[in-house]
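SEQUENCE-TO-STRUCTURE ENTRY
===========================
What this section holds: a protein sequence and its matching fold, both as plain text.
Tokens: labelled as protein backbone structure tokens, with as many entries as the chain has residues.
Question of interest: how does this chain fold, as expressed in backbone structure tokens?
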Amino acid sequence: MRAKIFGLIALMAGFLNSTPAFAAEPLKSSSSASCAAVTFNVTTLGCLGFFGGNLVSGGGPKLTEALAVTGSLDPSANSLLERLDLHSWQDLHVIDFDKVLSGRTVIGIHFGGGGTGYNGTGFWLLDVPDYTDKITYTSNVQKGISNAGLYLTQIPAVPEPSAWALMLLGFFALGGRMRSRHAELSNTVCYA
């Protein structure tokens, strides 16, 4: 019995001594005036652009060029996960991705010329709350965007291993107390 108690104490000490995981430092936002032209309803950690032409492309040299830019924002942004073509009948200030977004997210937005003469693509590193699929933006670049691309998002957070261990330890303690209480009651002799 003492061995079990000492084992549990050692296990608790090990869990309490574990260190939590810390997120990496966010990138510093660019002070470029072109990045300030677009603001989002989520925290912007960094921006690169605007680049001439439509870099939100499904393949070819434009995709290679876009991945070189997104890799500068976050090295994990190494593929185009989703591409949206936005139309005039949609809400022009909402980008609604099919994928659920969470944490560090890299997106690209192409502002098409549409007769205004402007044709450029910008890329942003955003800090998105868990389980988000829509991002709202405001822009003084021009009226609308033609397409958007998703290059990186994270899986929603899972509790720390030490939190799980503490929960399991609580269940074990509760179960042990219930067993010892049951043993105390079954050993008691009652006479009527």
Summary: The first helix runs from residue 2 to 16.
